[in-house]
Amino acid sequence: MPLILETIVTTVSAHGALHLVPFGLIRDGEDFWVAPFRPSPTIANLEAVPFFAAAAPADVRVIAGCVTGRRDWPTAASRTIPVPRLADAYGHMELQVVEVRDDPVRPRFRGRVVHDEAHRPFLGHNRAVNAVLEAAILSTRLHRLNAETVLAELHHHRIAVEKTAGPAEREAWNWIAAKVVAALPQAAAASLAVDGA
Ligand SMILES: Cc1cc2nc3c(=O)[nH]c(=O)nc-3n(C[C@H](O)[C@H](O)[C@H](O)COP(=O)(O)O)c2cc1C
How far does the centroid of ligand 1 lie from the alpha carbon of residue 175, in Å? Predict the structure, then answer.
């Protein structure tokens, strides 16, 4: 399996409307594939404007927010492509689409890095951020996964949030917990959420 980088991908439509969403970029040599499941505005955007920015968010609420209906995060102009990037990022890449592999389920767009840039120092890993990331991905697959398995995994990840989260990570976790509780009747709200957000 190739390395996958979880990033915030931005694209724009033919009319210039911004779309911001978390995507796992699949590394292929020095290129990165973005592979959106249909239907996704990202597909039409990349067909119309073949560039995307991919950022490492400095606040995990951006990832949790995007999968819980909170997509309005500040962006900044990119250096070399006509697509803005997430503003609050450790760093970002600017990519040009150089190949498209069409598919009825999940087309793929090969992005070539035309520019990359660091914005702030990365000072250490945090387990709660990783836990929120895993929970965010699980929350986009609730319709495809077994509910008991999802809940067992979430309760495992919740331990890291309880032990190592700051206020932003707690808030991000609770956004996802609320989404899961709404979707899965068997999830008990009280035991999935954490205090202090
Ligand atoms: C960390 C992370 C990585 C994701 N990677 C992908 C991906 O590679 N492909 C995909 O279709 N969805 C992926 N998703 C789910 C999408 O972000 C989510 O389904 C989103 O709502 C799709 O938005 P769109 O349909 O507006 O483009 C990912 C979610 C998270 C949290």
Answer: 16
CATH top class, domain 4-118 = mainly beta
Ligand 1 lined by 165 (C-beta under 6 Å):
no
Placement of tokens 């990349």 in the chain:
46
Sequence-ordered list of residues with C-beta below 8 angstroms from that of 29, at least 6 positions apart, any chain: none
d(CA 55, CA 20): 10
Residue 193 CA to residue 182 CA, distance in Å, equals: 12
pTM for this predicted structure: 0.95
Q: Which helix (H) or strand (E) holds 173?
A: helix 167-183
Contact 21, 45 (CB under 8 A): no
pLDDT digits (tens, 9 = 90+) for 93-138: 999 999 999 999 999 999 999 999 999 999 999 999 999 999 999 9
Where along the chain do its domains lie?
A: 4-118, 127-192
State the closest ligand 1 atom to the C-alpha of 36, by its place in the atom list counted from 1.
11
CB 46 within 8 A of CB 93: no
Taken as a whole, the chain contains a residue count of: 197
